[in-house]
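request received
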Amino acid sequence: MKYGVSTDIGAIPDELFQFAQRDMATCGNKLGAKPAGYFMDAWLRFKKNRASVAAAAIIAAIVLFGVFAPLASHYKISDADGIYAKVRPYNPLFAGLGIGFWDGTCKKVLNDKYQIYLAGIGMGAEDKDGQAASWAAGTASPWCPIASEGEEYLKEGGRYRNSRVDTYKLVGFKYLTVTMDEYESIKAWEARTGRSVLYPMVDTSGPWCDPYNADDANFWYRHAPNGMPVDEKGRKMDLETVMRGGLVDNYVRDKSGSVVYCLPRDKSMVQIRALYCNYYIYRHGYGPHHLFGADAQGYDILVRLACGVRLSLLLSLCVSLINLTIGAAYGAIEGYYGGAVDLIMERIADILGGIPFIIVATLFQLHMVNTGRVSTLTGLLLAFVLTGWISTAYTVRTQFYRFKNQEYVLAARTLGAGDLRLICRHIFPNAIGTIITTSVLVIPGVIFTESTLSYLGIVNFNGATQTSIGAMLSNGQGYLATDPHIILFPSAVISLLMISFNLFGNGLRDAFNPTLRGADE
Amino acid sequence: MYMLKYVLKRIGLLFLSFFVIMTICFVLVKLLQPELPMLGQQAKAELARREALGYNKPILEQYAIYLRNIITRWDWGTSWKIDYLCDVRKVIADRLTPTLILNAYSILISIPVGILLGVIAALRKNKPADHIISTLIMLFVSVPSYVYAFIVQYLLGFRLNLFPVMLSSLYDAGGSWFSPAMIKSMALPVLALSFGTVADLARYVRAELTEALTSEYMLLARAKGLTKTRATLSHALINAMVPVLPMIISLFLGILGGSMIIERIFAVNGIGSLYIKSIELLDYDVFIAASMFYTFISLSSSILVDLSYGFLDPRIRMGAK
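response:
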């Protein structure tokens, strides 16, 4: 401001002027800043949209889950253990906290009889040698299914408590039939690891066992036909008596009075009474823990869900790529040649597009899949491919109409470029942004439609070796009231997937739209 | 003139598509071989029935007869599996009622709520109210309808025990579609159907109204001295409604199609479950008729939506180059 606002150049003293470029070459310099190409520019703008970046991260996480979860898990997709059907989600992080969240427990209303039955599992597990275990030892036992006891209340003359029960330990004991060799190997394993599998056999044919309960290995104590425990003289015991004096066992004893651990079944097989959880560890080498729980057939939900995610992603990726190719080619030919070619091709697309997708999918399933010609997945893929390309073709066609009469195309044609070169090199790149966006936005649509069709049972993905999210939802729907966890995880994952893909697609659309360049600054 | 030509062209195309799709459906379905009883009196009777119904004639001849019956007598055939010996027209009409009523309730609730939310979000753009509504819209547009059907069914039905979890049958509800018991049992499916529609509508209204509010005629209206409320109500809102109304029309047509998945979750004996049952049991005539019903709905709704633009907004001229 020293020299004021004078615009009179003549008034500026000469010594203030300098030669600007005395030592610098004025030409031949490279530009300092990197030029931002189309994709670079899109990426720069995509990065600014935080929701889309987060969505992309979630999608990446779900993809990783789908790819790696089945590899990392103990369970295979075909592993079904009916004994652990419908067990609750169990996360080792929350297991010991007793907060009733993600620790394999569920709420159960216990009456006196059921309370004794459950505590009995713990007492039985503490009573390896038939020496009888006290109530306190039983409920403190790590095998006792009662995780936390609820407040007692009276209703209609009965005492009840809303306790939390561990669904894994609820299995308790099981009668198993094994070979003599396996019996010996279990014994050796017991000695080696210090875990108890074999427990005293129960006299199921005697007067103290109700024939109705003969198959239930958890009724190791003497009980009346209604399931209430009785003492040595056959008098019924109530909860207080049991808590004071414990239960009276109903074990098979040999002549010397000691318990037996197996009963011969036939020439080579024996029947044993095993603490099933330890038996499971003996068989598999790991404990029965399902991070997302197990469904009604005893499949591990985590692995099945990961396989469902895999299937959805694989299908939608294939559909997206194939439709992209067909749609781009079709739209390019339509748009470039115009006229009669356009008219006819447009009518074909109109008619194909008019068929509701559900009918296409149904007919493909009935004709190709049910007759065994192709697999379920291929059948569904074909159905998607039949009509899915129409929207891509339409987008490409519009782009071609916009650009094919521009001067630069005319210039290229004058220079001798052929049709193919004009289409591929000169006009098509204009449509790339829109094509990428539509192909990404196709993916959530395909995932949604696939899950809907498999939910409705039109497409059948139910099986030991394959499953889809829709099939899992359909199987779990009947257990919504009692075992909501079966439906919770598939619903959560598909919702997350849909939300993320929509956010991601919107971000891409904005990023690839050059008219928005600089609009957000 | 443009308009008439355009309408005629579209209707002609509709019939062409309809005919082609029907032919494909008919031929493909008839090509399927159902399992027939192999032995005894039943097999004889079944084979005789198939012979008498003309199932052994060439498929194209069967198709000609089928078409003739439809054109001359509007006879869409007979159901053999779902409702034994019942006219297909009656089967569809019976199943249409619950679908129609449920979806009508849902639309009646969704339209005002959706428009209201959209207007609020647009007027309070980039304020907390808008952020909340926009997030909810994003959530409800993306999450599949069956997921919130499960949530609604679990929370309101099983846990809080407020409403029946399934639609009660006509008999249980006292023989009327409008008895209190029936309306109460309709609450959950209607709610589940409405979430998505509300979100769709609100998103659309928000986008259109935002654009209208920032347009130049609004500036002019304000410059003329109109209050903000007045300008918004009589200029922006009306212009924003032009693209929204066709959407409402397509919603009304969507009523007829209904939602198969909601019908399955809430055990509604509607047109969606009819379609699925007809596939499972391979009831030819019902399957074709239900398929054509869906096709007709989707074809005609696209025409009506396109035409309504022309009628509502004089600036849009249909078929003009």
